[in-house]
Amino acid sequence: MERRKAAKSTLIQVLSMFKGLLIVLKHAFRKTKTFSYPEVKRKLPARSRGKHFLTKWSDGKERCVGCELCAIVCPSQAIYVKAAPNDPENPHSHGERYASDFQINMLRCIYCGYCEEACPTGAIILGNEYELVGYNRESLIFTKDKLTEKNPGDSGRDPNREI
Amino acid sequence: MLLVAVEVLIKGIIVIMVLMGAAAYMTFLERVLMARMQLRWGPNRVGPFGLLQPIADGLKLLCKERFQPKNIEPFTYWLAPSISVFTALFVFVLIPFGGTVEIWGHQVALRIADVNAGIVFLLGISSLAVYGVVLAGWSSNNRYSLLGGLRGTAQLISYEIPMGISLLTVILAAGTLSLTEIVDAQKNHWFLWTNPIAFLIYLVTAFAETNRSPFDLPEAEQELTAGYHTEYGGMKFAMFFLAEYINILAVSSIAVTLFLGGWHGPWDIPVVWFALKVAALVFLFFWVRATMARFRYDQLMSFGWKVLVPIATLNLIVTAYFILV
């Protein structure tokens, strides 16, 4: 009896091997899942984390108030913020201060998104762009002019949102 | 006499050229086919559809540094890859690719040599292939290589027996040892239909003989890094690689010759039917590699000795009974 059972299970195993062969052959006629990268680019999900943006209010003022919370929370210490007081005549931001210098080292950044969480004004957010390459280390330290969005709302975030 | 020698030489050179080219493009085909079966694209960058990929690979391997590890056995270390390639190529001396064709009023038989004890010679040569594996494993002074070489030896020797027994049924059915006469005996019906079990056993052992998955234990990447060719690089590695693919062609050609009617087919076209049948079998090799997982070593041995040998022997006895009665 035991013997017959063993023989039966062996037979099932052998048959399932052939079934496996057929399944693999079926897959050969399916569409490939790979993207031919430089020609076809994958569209990432909206909330995936890539290159950072420094956002603006709808009136064109910078959101960043130079509080340095992002620099403090950053686990890989990739952010450098230098705050300066706003000129009351011609303010950069809505607060007292603004970031006169803002640098993110893209080689150190691990795209964890903590800076985005820590920011009290919603100034720093992580976008979807993932093609971050350069020929030397210096070119991958992104400065304020590279990070700030050109027009309010370019980053995909509503410029009227409070935070 | 001289004319015969020149003819054999030309045929040999053509066969070697075709085999080398075929082996190179088999690597490409395998990569593309396996990629498609795994929903990938495979190599498609070098040239149109990636068709120049094997050439690029070959150039890369040729340009590699010529190195040898410390404390090796230099003579055997350098000899082993050539033994592998030599034995793989040598099988094709005996394979009939087609009948006789007339070229410039000269009768040319599409085979290099017609040996009257062809199958015996074939089995002898294919058994020699184990020397490439075991010498490479032993001489490279690496435990992984040695283990791979020993596994390869045990595997090849174990699976040689059911292979030989399954081929005996064909010899019994054809009543001859000459490969040409065996092909002629299959003009009307293939031996596949009369000896299906022998064909299946031959196919399984062929996978084992060529060290292909699911019997790729001698070069198991996960356990043995790369088995017997761990310490080989550049063109020496390419020789092993080439030998593996030529071996696939060789066992497929033997299967076609002995079971699938050789070069016979509708409308007497030389070589084409043979090539098509071999291509189908080669596809089977790739297909199985994309599907099957590797055997464990004890499974391999018990499968060979406890399943294949008894079935092959029984099959031989039954075939002998039917032929005698």
Report the CATH architecture of the domain at 52-147 in chain A. Answer: 2-Layer Sandwich
What is the number of E strands of chain A?
5
Instruction: Name the largest protein-protein interface in this structure.
Output: A-B, 14 and 14 residues
Distance between the termini of chain B: 45 Å
What is the 3D shape of chain B? globular
- Strand % of chain A is 5-15%
What's the main sheet of chain A like? 3 strands, antiparallel
Structural class given helices, strands, pairing of chain B? mainly alpha
Largest beta sheet: strand ordering of chain B: 1-2
CATH topology group of the domain at 52-147 in chain A: Alpha-Beta Plaits
What is the CA–CA distance across the termini of chain A?
73 Å
Rg of chain B, please? Answer: 20 Å
Could you list the spans of chain A in which at least 5 consecutive residues all have pLDDT below 50? none
Give the strand order, joined by hyphens, for the main sheet of chain A.
2-3-5
Separate helix tally of chain A: 4
| Rg of chain A (CA only) | 26 Å
Q: Which helices and strands occur, and which strands form pairs?
A:
The complex is a heterodimer of chains A (163) and B (325).
Chain A: H1 2-28, E1 52-54, H2 69-73, E2 79-85, E3 97-105, H3 114-118, E4 124-126, E5 141-142, H4 144-147
Antiparallel strand pairs in A: 1-4, 2-3, 3-5
Chain B: H1 2-37, H2 53-62, H3 74-90, E1 100-103, E2 106-109, H4 118-139, H5 143-174, H6 179-185, H7 191-194, H8 196-209, H9 221-224, H10 234-259, H11 272-291, H12 297-324
Antiparallel strand pairs in B: 1-2
Helix pairs in contact in B: 1-2, 1-10, 1-11, 2-10, 3-4, 3-10, 4-5, 5-8, 5-12, 8-10, 8-12, 10-11
